[in-house]
Design a protein that fits this description.
323 residues, Jelly Rolls, Phage tail protein beta-alpha-beta fold, 33% strand, FecR_N, FecR family protein
């Protein structure tokens, strides 16, 4: 993927010559993985900036049409269809969000943009913090206080109300608050994450009806059909409500994934450095500064191949013109 981004930057720079063009076409023809990666980069670029080539290149589609077998082209297109998967850490708000969910997020009662953290006070005194690119609907009824998490991350401090229970619905099930402070988040793999910091939360899955009660300092993930065994909740995790990411022996890959939620564009981590352990506090409202901080305490460097395409790599790794 990084090679594809570097080719993209070169071809759009206005500095590419005929030999660069020929080398790019040879790279593109070398493997299906290269063609799929190039398609991903073009797809991302259309989201973030108009595509106007300064070298009058043929489109990827035209190049692919030179493939000799229709079956090969079909496999390439299938590869392009999967480019929103594990190969990318972030494509901003829509990176792993289905279009229907995006539409619902825009229509939600409360929502945030990429990089924004917002606190909302509900009519009963309940306080809700929304993380980056998050949205929820509010449905207060005479006998029930209900929120529906549409996308992203919310942290809730429930107000006491003996007459009305408090629930949060997600596509995977329902969370019933039992006098509590807790965090709920829709994960990219189609599960719901929940961590409890005070009180308790009952989890009920949407499909199987499985229930589990989480106590303070416990967290879990659940799908529509099952709940994972609870684990110890990380108290530092709630620091995002204050605009901070606190890392305590956290892998660099995980740190980058959290920062990626708060920045526009793509952020990658080279496999060679993804397991480096990170300690420290990093600002979520200035992820560029957070990346600079990482590069000062770890043997890594940050490369900005394009305005919306960055990568964390081993320090000293060269930036060759032709991948």
């Amino acid at each position: 993927m990084q090679e594809a981004a570097e080719w993209f930057a070169l071809l759009r720079s206005g500095e590419a010559v005929h030999t660069d063009r020929a080398a790019w076409e040879a790279w593109l023809a070398a493997s299906e993985a290269h063609r799929a990666a190039w398609g991903c980069v073009e797809q991302v670029s259309r989201r973030f900036e108009p595509i106007q080539s300064s070298v009058d290149p043929r489109s990827t589609v035209e190049v692919l049409q030179t493939a000799r077998h229709h079956a090969l082209r079909r496999r390439v297109l299938l590869g392009l269809a999967t480019c929103g998967g594990t190969g990318l850490l972030s494509w901003a708000v829509w990176r792993h969000t289905p279009l229907p969910a995006m539409a619902m997020a825009w229509a939600a009662d409360h929502r945030t943009s990429v990089g924004e953290v917002r606190e909302v006070s509900l009519p009963d005194g309940t306080r809700v913090w929304l993380g980056s690119a998050s949205a929820f609907d509010e449905d207060y009824q005479p006998g029930l206080r209900r929120l529906r998490l549409v996308t992203g991350d919310i942290f809730i401090e429930t107000a006491a109300d003996a007459r009305r229970g408090f629930v949060v619905d997600t596509p995977q099930g329902r969370l019933r608050a039992l006098g509590t402070r807790f965090n709920a988040r829709l994960e990219e793999d189609g599960q719901t994450f929940v961590a409890v910091y005070e009180g308790a939360v009952e989890v009920r899955t949407a499909t199987s009806g499985t229930t589990r009660v989480l106590r303070a300092s416990e967290q879990t993930r659940f799908s529509g059909s099952g709940v994972e065994p609870p684990a110890q909740a990380d108290p530092a995790r709630e620091s995002w409500t204050q605009g901070l990411l606190i890392a305590q022996d956290m892998p660099l890959g995980q740190v980058a994934a959290e920062l990626a939620r708060y920045r526009r564009g793509h952020l990658a981590v080279a496999p060679e450095v993804a397991d480096l352990r990170v300690f420290g506090s990093f600002p979520l409202n200035d992820t560029d500064r957070a990346l600079v901080m990482l590069s000062t305490v770890l043997p890594v460097q940050v490369r900005h191949t394009l305005p919306w395409w960055s990568s964390i790599e081993p320090k000293g790794k060269g930036a060759a013109r032709s991948p």
